[in-house]
Amino acid sequence: MKFSFANPTAIHFGQGQISAIATAIPTDAKVLVVYGGGSIKKNGVYDQVVTSLANHQWEEFSGVEPNPTKETLDKAVAIVKERGIDFLLAVGGGSVIDGTKYIAAAAHYDGDGWDIMTGSHQVQSAVKLGAILTLPATGSESNSGAVVTRLATQDKLAFLSPHVYPQFAVLDPDSMKTLPERQLKNGLVDAWVHICEQYLTLPTGAMVQDGYAEALLKNLLILGADYDNNDDDAWRANLMWSANQALNGLIGTGVPQDWATHMIGHEITALYGVDHARSLAIVQPSLLRNQIDYKKAKLEQMGRNVFGIDGDDVATRTIDAIEAFYQSLGVATQLQDYGTTKENAIDAVVGQLQGHGFTKLGENQSIDLDVTRAILEKAVA
Ligand code: NZQ
Ligand code: ZN
Predict the structure, then answer these.
(1) Sorting pLDDT into bands at 50, 70 and 90, what band is 329?
(2) Which residues form the signal peptide (predicted)?
(3) In this predicted model, what pLDDT tens digit does every residue of 10-26 receive, in sequence order?
(4) Beta carbon of 183 within 6 Å of any ligand 1 atom
């Protein structure tokens, strides 16, 4: 274990905290409020933003899609450059926050913003940003990552930069009240898989990271089992805080990380439009079964400490329990309705991974294209 850790995002958590933006954003800033398809106008979040920005100079950019596209975001980049915007406020889910991170970085770059996604441009600086989260799932509100899609080529790529950590994140669980069931369940699954990506690798004896990861996994299991009570302040608050902690960097410091499920899942979303979380539920059980030899010790630890499984075949039964957790939420664990033959669907995913150079995935680089193909054989119905 050797690491440096800093998470610079200030968190304003709790009911009524949207008003904190009045002082969290400098009053002399020129602000662009960035949001999605309009959910924030139906749950009072937009109105609270307007009230809280009464002493600020601000304008807005709407229409950021789920799985945000370069094509849309570049329009905001042009506005930021033209108008001298120097603070971005993202209001929405992971897509809006990721999109805002791209806008922030691309606005400080003279070339095509896509260069940031391919890695041919390393981000040197970015417009300052803050986030108001309305959908707990991705952790984007206080991490340094963003995922953006180029529609024209169906490429979905991620970038990481310390320059795009939000300055602050507002987490008001009341903003979740209008979330459709599908998105609440997506949040549970995405946060769950984020913890797995940083925990289900190989044992390193990192007691803090393992112990906290297990606590968060247990929270998500309890919230899933108690799903019928999701219209409850404590339920919402616990999901919002758990999903944030799952991917704010802490549990991943100093330990091996996997992320193969995410890389394969991103291609499935780009090709077939499957929600991000649902792409993970499709890939992960099959991937874990394929990689069970490498992951056996951590699967057994998770089985014992999270699910309370003992006896024989703990690793196998733990994977079964993970799959059953998704299914208990009504989340499918195989890809269906992909509009072509199974063989074509698998070829397409493998072809995209190859094109992006993602040919050795996982904590020990053991998932090459042949292994991916074997994983997809089970993951595609
Ligand atoms: O656009 P609006 O109208 O706001 O509607 C959104 C959208 O249709 C809606 N929604 C959000 N908050 C709502 C609400 N509807 C009603 N009430 C509310 N309070 O939900 C829909 C989905 O939103 P989206 O932001 O796309 O969902 P999510 O937060 O799951 O974000 C998914 C994106 O994040 C990326 C994914 O790849 C995907 O592109 N990820 C980002 C990560 C990161 N930055 O660290 C890590 C993740 O693994 C993930 O890859
Ligand atoms: Zn995710």
Answers:
(1) very high
(2) none
(3) 999 999 999 999 999 99
(4) yes
CA–CA distance, 142 with 166 (Å, rounded to integer): 6
Q: Is the CB of 17 under 6 A from ligand 1?
A: no
CATH code that applies to domain 10-175: 3.40.50.1970
For residue range 65-101, list pLDDT tens digits in order: 999 999 999 999 999 999 999 999 999 999 999 999 9
pTM of the predicted model over 0.85: yes
Q: How far apart are the first and last CA of the chain?
A: 41
Superfamily per CATH, domain 181-379: Dehydroquinate synthase-like - alpha domain (1.20.1090.10)
| Phi, psi torsion values for 31, nearest 5 degrees | -105, 140
Decide if 177 contacts 232 (C-beta within 8 A).
no
Q: Where are the domains of the chain?
A: 10-175, 181-379
Q: Is the pLDDT of residue 330 over 90?
A: yes
Q: Are 187 and 227 in contact (CB under 8 A)?
A: no
In sequence order, the 6+-apart residues with CB closer than 8 A to the CB of 54 are 22
With the most atoms of ligand 1 within 8 angstroms of its CB, the residue from 35, 62, 65, 183 to mutate is: 183
Ligand at minimal distance from the CA of 184 is 1
